[in-house]
């Protein structure tokens, strides 16, 4: 009798396990040992003293699966979570670059249907901010160094505020097929930040948030070109007449030479407009370079943000410059070690820091004029 019960239990478990036989589990561990500091602050006593720390660089766990539907169509899902080996914090769609702790489904998580006509999906997904990864992959791709080595530390913000895109909630997305190197992404989000009640409310005097994203690209052989445009209306679903609007533009291109040298150039402009009509805007550019030979990758980036402009007048001394140097050694296809250094020189009114809330130098706003520095020894393993 006991053997029959055990056999039935095993059969039941088997039917569950093989209900969708192509579910996969994957992810990555990325952990860095940092040395950070920020000196040169405009105000006396505002410098950040040198210190060491261990930082999670977005370790993740992903469950994904597919089901063939026939007629060339496939249903799919993905649940991606930050797992946090130390204090991992993931980005959200909050306009100020908000953060959320490591819980299930906080990263790219969606369900969709794809076919020869493209890929349509709904859920939570990256929007705009990482669109230039084909030009500058440092810190954003697996085995590519610490997160904040990317030029986003200059491009992503407007003097430390106005995060340009993120991982938007309530997203309706479409990715086109590839036509001889040309493709595009479209996205619409009803409420990019946490929660959707404000956007669904029918109460009088509540603005309805709208986020529209389009990103065409061309990638063929050694050439990669991408443009990304994000328009945000009534950010935050606040009371009527109080929600800001925002626009973000980014254009980038890269060419990879046969010997492994890759040269890129990125132009970026972002702006926000208050309900009262006051516009704050900023332009920036970045020059990422990399060289790959065998298991070795050397990367260098120089980036510059111009003075912010508020209401048509420049904010004097609000510009900043970033320099980055990194090295990655691939021990295998799945395991690598890396060393990187980056520094930002903030002018006396500038407050730029690393772009990612889990691995920037300051836990709060960077003091005006302070120059953040970060050296990282990193271990990466994908599975």
What does this structure look like?
By secondary structure, this protein is mainly beta. It has a single domain, classed as Porin, CATH 2.40.160.10. Helix content is 6%, strand content 52%. It is built from 3 helices and 21 strands. It has helices spanning 2-17, 152-155, 197-200; strands at residues 24-39, 48-56, 60-70, 73-82, 89-91, 99-101, 109-115, 118-127, 166-175, 182-189, 210-220, 223-233, 245-256, 261-273, 279-293, 296-305, 309-310, 313-314, 320-330, 335-346, 371-382. The strands form 2 sheets. A 16-stranded antiparallel β-barrel has the order 1-3-4-7-8-9-10-11-12-13-14-15-16-19-20-21. Strands 5-6 form a two-stranded antiparallel ribbon. The two termini are 42 Å apart.
What is the gist of this entry?
It is built from three helices and 21 strands.
How are the secondary structure elements laid out?
Layout lengths: L1 H16 L6 E16 L8 E9 L3 E11 L2 E10 L6 E3 L7 E3 L7 E7 L2 E10 L24 H4 L10 E10 L6 E8 L7 H4 L9 E11 L2 E11 L11 E12 L4 E13 L5 E15 L2 E10 L3 E2 L2 E2 L5 E11 L4 E12 L24 E12 L1
Antiparallel strand pairs: 1-2, 1-3, 1-21, 3-4, 4-7, 5-6, 7-8, 8-9, 9-10, 10-11, 11-12, 12-13, 13-14, 14-15, 15-16, 15-17, 16-19, 17-18, 19-20, 20-21
